Amino acid sequence: DIQMTQSPSSLSASIGDRVTISCQASQDINKYLNWYQQKPGKAPNLLIFDTSDLETGVPSRFSGSGSGTHFTFTISSLQPEDVATYSCQQSYMLPYTFGQGTKLEIK
Amino acid sequence: EELLVQSGAEVKKPGESLKISCKGSGYGFTSYWIAWVRQVPGKGLEWMGFIYPGDSDARYSPSFQGQVTFSADKSITTAYLQWNSLRASDTAMYYCARRRMTNLGLAIGAFDMWGQGTMVTVSS
Fold this sequence. Notes:
Structural class of chain A: mainly beta
Number of strands of chain B: 11
Shape of chain B: globular
Radius of gyration of chain A: 13 Å
Largest interface: A-B, 25 and 23 residues
Helix content of chain A: under 10%
Largest sheet of chain B: 7 strands, mixed
Shape of chain A: globular
Number of strands of chain A: 11
Distance between the termini of chain B: 40 Å
Strand content of chain B: over 45%
Strand content of chain A: over 45%
Order of helices and strands of chain A: EEEEEEEEEEE
Oligomer: heterodimer
Radius of gyration of chain B: 14 Å
Helix content of chain B: under 10%
Structural class of chain B: mainly beta
Number of helices of chain A: 0
């Protein structure tokens, strides 16, 4: 199975800050990396697919980049409603696998 | 409105059987893969596999192969996740999720719509 490692596991930032989360794959996954937001007690919500494609209706402050084994998720200006856990997921090869999640809090 | 609605929370004893459901509405249910995803409380997401309701073709993660069974009933646009003999380690939230399609009708590996989750608790 492809292992997905996110960093950091948690972070605290201020409103308006630029926030970056990393996701590393244990092998080359081309561009097949997706990002989800999960608010407490809720189901995950797809934000970005295929590394950098923004899902319909998702605010443009969210973005993704990378290729191969190293990927980055960015929030350009943190908003209060962005408090959540963010998870990456590879869809290059079955079984699909997720990172362990990054919990984002407001400082 | 496109929706996936899951059945309610379950409390079971070890060794019991269980079948939970995921009903799709507002879209072409038979044309989209439905995945099942496990989340143990406080832990990350785990892809269990998916099923194509159009012909019930199913793919399982090796971690769950033989432990669970996916099925689908096209006539009532519902997918199911079933256990024959539950264990305490099956205690988790289970989500169904729809596999995203491109504008060209190709399925990609991201999941663009999720059910609300079904909490399964297995305890003696």
